[in-house]
Write a structure and sequence with these properties.
The chain has twelve helices and 13 strands. By secondary structure, the protein is α+β, with helices and mostly antiparallel strands. It comes from Orrella daihaiensis.
């Protein structure tokens, strides 16, 4: 009954993973359709996120746009606020159940991914003005992301201090002391400490600058609109090569009056994003009482994403990693994890104390029926075990990395796609346009990457004359 509160998930995780291994995005998207129309749990943020990404991967831009609009309305983190949402702090507190039984709240970086994918959806549908709105929203969200991240970190610290000063703090501290060495398993796979600026999504910031340089609006052609997001991308890039590409692109566009011409911009999504598994710590029963049948803690363990090809070559130019979703997700989890542990410990202490009290009553009332008493106490322990679950939900169809390549448009109009060792994967026929955006997605190596192409003109907008 409690699990039902968390909402339904349309796509079976195992089936989705199998399709991701094959880069079979059409099959994944089909799970969110019924009679050709979108069909998923619109009241479940996680389901809407995965549906939006599935439609984007399959080239169903309008369906993706709608799903991400639904997801954005439910996300606890907003682009125009740096405060820590109170809902997000449900990972703390002395509630008896895990956050896994509540609604999915979302992450700071997921808000940025929503706006990024929305902008890409609009570009692919040819809606330049809507894409500008989404990039504006994305830019605001990125400017707030670092402050949100710092606010979240401090809020977790404050809540932890407050929680451990409450009733049961003594028993909770005993539990911490007994199991401290085991807690580290949850974050063992998280990349080491990184600057707060790395919480920003560099690939989106890169594309924000490129969009202005390739748009048809003369108002976009200035340093604030073009070079500023590119330089921000350089600071947030997950690799030195990505930072160098962003800086080089910013300098080249500044030299041409912030206008792009004759370029192919490649966005390559590689691999499968990070996930979580559950691990349990069985607590020494002497911490509370020996009159219990179960006492344990369930915690999430961070699992890094997996690459597909690792990188690709486009016309001989290798893609460079700009955003590493595993690293960004790991940054947020690392900040949240102390609060997750605190809640799990305090919750276990409270439930175990309640189990002791309940078992005392059972002993008193079943003196003449000891077997019945044993069965009743086993039931109490089983109930505690059932409500002790780690929240292992994650946006399952994100990529591991987002990579970028910038290529001069070949005179032949054909752009080759090659594996890292030079094996040809595909030839792309480019449109006759000033600039071209190429989207490439490969979540696994069992099938061919998905490729989508869109012309990006840079002709100035026509001047509108006032009617007489």
């Amino acid at each position: 009954m409690l699990a039902g509160c968390a909402g339904t998930r349309t796509n079976d995780p195992e089936a989705m993973n199998n399709h991701l291994n094959q880069s079979n995005y059409q099959a994944i998207a089909a799970a969110y359709l019924k009679d050709g129309k979108p069909n998923y749990d619109e009241d479940n943020l996680l389901d809407a996120l995965e549906a939006g990404k599935a439609f984007n991967d399959a080239g169903m831009w309008a369906h993706s746009k709608r799903a991400f609009e639904i997801a954005s309305s439910q996300l606890a983190w907003k682009e125009d606020s740096v405060d820590t949402p109170s809902e997000v702090m449900n990972l703390l507190g002395t509630t008896l159940t895990s956050s896994a039984f509540g609604a999915y709240q979302g992450k700071i970086f997921e808000g940025g991914m929503i706006d990024y994918y929305q902008a890409i959806n609009e570009i692919m549908m040819g809606n330049e003005q809507n894409a500008r709105v989404d990039f504006n929203r994305f830019d605001v969200r990125m400017s707030n992301a670092v402050a949100q991240y710092a606010s979240f970190r401090e809020e977790v610290r404050e809540e932890n201090r407050a929680e451990m000063s409450q009733e049961n703090a003594g028993l909770a501290n005993n539990t911490f002391d007994a199991a401290r060495g085991q807690f580290i398993e949850g974050v063992a796979n998280v990349t080491g400490k990184q600057p707060d600026a790395k919480i920003r999504i560099a690939a989106g910031e890169f594309m924000s600058g490129v969009f202005r340089a390739t748009s048809s609006a003369s108002a976009d052609k200035n340093a604030n609109k073009v070079t500023y997001p590119l330089k921000a991308a350089a600071k947030a890039s997950s690799t030195n090569a990505g930072a160098q590409l962003a800086t080089r692109t910013a300098n080249q566009l500044q030299a041409t009056g912030f206008k792009s011409k004759g370029k192919v911009y490649v966005l390559y999504e590689d691999g499968k994003g990070p996930s979580f598994t559950e691990f349990r710590i069985d607590l020494p029963l002497f911490l509370v009482s020996n009159k219990v049948t179960y006492s344990g803690i369930a915690l999430p363990k961070f699992q890094p994403g997996q690459p597909a090809f690792g990188r690709l070559q486009f016309g001989g130019t290798p893609s460079v990693e700009m955003t590493n979703i595993t690293n960004i997700s790991g940054m947020e989890f690392d900040v949240a994890y102390p609060g997750i542990v605190t809640k799990a410990v305090v919750s276990t202490v409270i439930k175990t104390a309640a189990q002791v009290a309940a078992n005392a009553v059972i002993d008193e009332q079943t003196k003449d029926a000891p077997l019945l008493g044993v069965l009743m106490k086993l039931g109490i322990g089983a109930a505690q075990a059932a409500s002790t679950q780690a929240d292992v939900r994650a946006w399952a169809n994100l990529p591991n990395t987002i990579q970028i390549a910038v290529v001069n448009r070949p005179s032949s109009g054909q752009l080759s796609v090659q594996s890292p060792n030079g094996t040809k994967i595909a030839d792309i026929a480019l449109p006759n346009a000033d600039n071209t955006l190429v989207l490439v997605k490969a979540s696994g190596v069992g099938g061919l990457p998905a490729i989508y192409i869109k012309a990006l003109p840079t002709q100035p907008e026509p001047t509108l004359r006032a009617s007489r």
